[in-house]
Amino acid sequence: MNTGKIFRGDKIIWVVFLLLSIVSLVEVYSSIGLYAYSLPGTRPTGLFLKHMAIVAATYVAIIFISRINYRFFSRFAMLGYWATLVLLAVMLALQGGRWFRIPLIGQFQPSEIAKVVLIIFVARMLALKKEHVAELGTFLQLLVYILLVVALILPENFSMAALIFLVCYVMMLVGGVKRSYWWRLLIVVVAVAGVAMFVMLKTGHAGDADGGDVLHRSNIWAERVDTWLHPNDDALTQENMARMAIARGGVFGAGIGNTVHARLMTQAHNDFIFAIIIEEMGMVGGIVVFLLYSILYFRCVRLAWRCKGRFGALTVFGLGTVIYLQALVNMCVAVGVLPVTGQTLPFISYGGTAYLFMGCGLGIIQAVAADVYSQEHGEEEPTVAEEGTAAVESGTGQEEGQSM
Fold it and tell me: Which of 80, 160, 161, 248 has the most beta carbons within 10 angstroms of its beta carbon?
């Protein structure tokens, strides 16, 4: 069997994903226990098998998506954007809900698919408007599109909203938006965020935790920041147990399956799984995981540089950036550099829609990689989606010229 025909795209990215998924299976198995027993009628084995199924489904999704001509996603970016916007609005209207529950899969968070869709949409807009991208009107139009999505995610998931905004904001800079506009808005955003956080910390909360106003979770944000700034080292919190797990791991770790603190943490399989990795594999294991994400991001940046199409280059850059930044945020939370955010560790934390949709993003990266490498070697590889019209001719950058 020719594995090159199955695993299309960048082979190093495939190896990195394989290693991350192996780490995921090992560490989820070690850390899922307490969370499983906290759910009525649930056992660790059942949850682990569910995680294995999600990982397997993610492999299938990446393989399938990597065979699609990446220009296909540009053609449906606008439709995907508005569909996602409607889905987010419906979720917000349902008493501030954060997810749907889907049989067999579990919790479906629209913000996870919004993360991928918005990046593709922004890449398309920057490509379409490449001749006018430095104009103020283009900058403001892009900003409105981004803020609409961010505003619908913000009330229930501040960290996700901030992550999406930051990635799209960086994409605008890379995509040619005038730097003076970019810097001015950055100053405004930082100033507003600083004032808002100061007010929340001073007042204790800015909303009712029971859903009294739009930002009813703002008290939770303030508490997390306050706990991070003024930690109580004697409290048995998730954060403190994560620090203890890291301290116990030392340089080489306590050994696979020898975690102690995962038995005491309900989020050891998810938000704080990096701490359990260090407890079992030591700082050496933690550094290896960090290097795997760094290699993945380097390969994405390299692909973006080599891609002839503007849409493909910006899509790969955006998706690679969101994976890397989310990984950094999760790792920083585990070691105490950032307050708790609730962001999972991509391709390692316990699976669900977050794992699967991030895998779909990786599949799109591999679709671009397959196109880049086939052009460089003069090969024509089969894809699921046909290129359609001359407006999406490979290597000409004309995919950006499609009408919206």
Answer: 160
CA dist., res. 391 & res. 311, Å (int) = 12
Q: What is the pTM of this model?
A: 0.86
Q: What's the domain range around 300?
A: 3-392
Residue 144 lies in a domain: yes
Q: 10 Å Cβ neighbour count for 273?
A: 28
Q: What is the pLDDT of residues 321-362, one digit of tens each?
A: 999 999 999 999 999 888 888 889 999 999 788 899 999 999
Cα–Cα distance for residue pair 269/350, rounded to 1 Å:
6
Does pLDDT of 15 surpass 90? yes
For 60, counting Cβ atoms within 10 Å of its Cβ (0-12 exposed, 13-18 middle, 19+ buried), the class is exposed
Reported as a single tens digit per residue, the pLDDT across 83-120 is 999 988 888 887 555 566 665 555 678 888 999 999 99
Greatest distance between any 2 Cα atoms in the chain:
66
Residue 149, φ and ψ in degrees, nearest 5: -70, -45
Please check whether residue 398 lies inside any domain of the structure: no
24 assigned to some structural domain: yes
CA–CA separation, 274 vs 268, rounded Å?
Answer: 8
What whole-number distance in Å separates Cα of residue 92 and Cα of residue 346? Answer: 25
**What is the Cα–Cα distance from 243 to 249, expressed in whole angstroms?**
10
Three-state DSSP at 104 gives coil
| Distance from the Cα of residue 383 to its chain's centroid | 26
Q: Is residue 403 part of a domain?
A: no
Say what angle helices 110-128 and 77-93 make with each other, to 10 degrees.
150
